[in-house]
Amino acid sequence: MAETETTVNPTIQQCSVDMIRDLGIEGLLEEHWDEVALHKDLMVLSPDWHRYYEIEERGMMLVLAASTPADGIVGYSVTFIVPHLHYSDLIVANNDLLFVSKDWRRTGLGPRLILATESASRERGARMMTWHAKPKTILNKLMPKIGYGVQDIVHSKEL
Predict the structure, then answer these.
(1) What pTM was estimated for this model as a whole?
(2) Is 77 helix (H, G, I), strand (E, B) or coil?
(3) 79 CB contacts (<8 Å, ≥6 apart)?
(4) Which of 28, 32, 49, 129 has the lowest tally of Cβ within 10 angstroms?
(5) Is the pLDDT of residue 28 over 60?
(6) How many domains does the chain have?
(7) How far is it, in rounded angstroms, from Cα 139 to Cα 61?
(8) CA–CA distance, 32 with 84 (Å, rounded to integer)
(9) What is the β-pairing status of strands 91-100 and 128-130?
(10) Is residue 48 part of a domain?
(11) Residue of 12, 47, 42 lying closest to 32 (CA atoms)
């Protein structure tokens, strides 16, 4: 079991793709995928690291990692910061991934990552922030409490 926030408060830092890979994000990605992927036979975890590097080179990605010396990476947030396709003067921060390891939930780390993502996105010029939340999750329940409203509802089916 991980140390709790009362003994070691995870450090949240902006990272490059190389840094998060060096911190050992692959195990946490697997945990994330196992928990949230609805169609595991179709949605096989296989990050396209080459495209992540390309997006990073264009300055359109924000990666935050939460880590402790003892546990390594225990949470992350990956956000794409781009001009909106319909409203080209509007820079939007679209969070693609947000995850906190089960051992670190209910410690306040999730809200800290959200606030850090908002702040860093604002610093990069974003004026709107979006998050994807699965129904019946803590994140979906939290968003309205911190000022977010529903922008779109996404439906999916396997073809």
Answers:
(1) 0.87
(2) strand
(3) 61, 62, 63, 93, 94, 95, 96, 117, 121
(4) 49
(5) yes
(6) 1
(7) 21
(8) 27
(9) parallel
(10) yes
(11) 47
